[in-house]
Amino acid sequence: MPSTCSSLRPRQEGSRLFPRPNSSILHVGMSVAAGLIRPIVICGPSGTGKSTLLKKLFIDYPDKFGFSISHTTRAPRPGESHGVSYHFVTRDDFVDLVKRDGFIEHAEFSGNMYGTSVQAVEDVKKGGKMCILDIDTQGVKLIKANHAYLNPLYVFISPPSIASLKTRLTGRGTESAESMSARLAAAVGELEYAKSGAFDVVVVNDDLERAYNVLRQVIVEGKTDEADKLPDFSSEA
């Protein structure tokens, strides 16, 4: 969803709500790409530590990166605030913005709607920073299909194992049995998508400091050859 602006959210695979945006959103999107600052798309299952990794990145490089603050229809969680964690809006307001071609990508998960607005990306660009988008695989697919001109670097944050992911989600103490099941099912789908080679870079968060160092080398120093390989989860399927 850090730098003062973060949508560090556990959003998972959802469903497209409306048809592809028309040319008005494409025009705005191309202006972002024309800034010659390549966006960074961060994706990975809920519980992989994306939030922690990105918070560290924003603390260390506050003038280099900007986070697109997402819109959502879900209620704020403890510690979250409007305009910082998310733009918390009603479903009617969200749908209205979609109809006005206000989103680059949007999806629905567990009855809640999430989206990355054109304005959020424009705000980061105007500040002269590299835009980081924390989105799910549905959003990745939409950008690849409809907004490839943005030419982002696609980074997948992976758990070392599905078992470790379940442990992390359980440790949060915020997931119901139903929610846990949904998130694990979504995680399996995201890991399968990552196996297709959809991402430029994989970072395995088996150790926070090591994973952060890999992420920093990839994003800040451009050393994509330092990236990890996606673990083999077949034995856990």
Automatic annotation (TrEMBL):
Highest taxon in the source lineage: Eukaryota
Alphabetized Pfam families for the sequence: Guanylate_kin (PF00625)
InterPro entries named among the record's database cross-references: GK/Ca_channel_bsu, Guanylate_kin-like_dom, Guanylate_kinase, Guanylate_kinase_CS, P-loop_NTPase
Ranges that cross the membrane: none
Keyword set, alphabetical order: ATP-binding, Kinase, Nucleotide-binding, Transferase
GO molecular function annotations of the record: ATP binding; GMP kinase activity
KW Ligase (keyword) present: no
CDD domains: GMPK
Domain Guanylate kinase-like: 37-220
Kinase is among the record's keywords: yes
Gene Ontology cellular component terms for the protein in this record: cytosol
EC code(s) of this entry: 2.7.4.8
Similarity remark: Belongs to the guanylate kinase family.
Name of the protein: Guanylate kinase
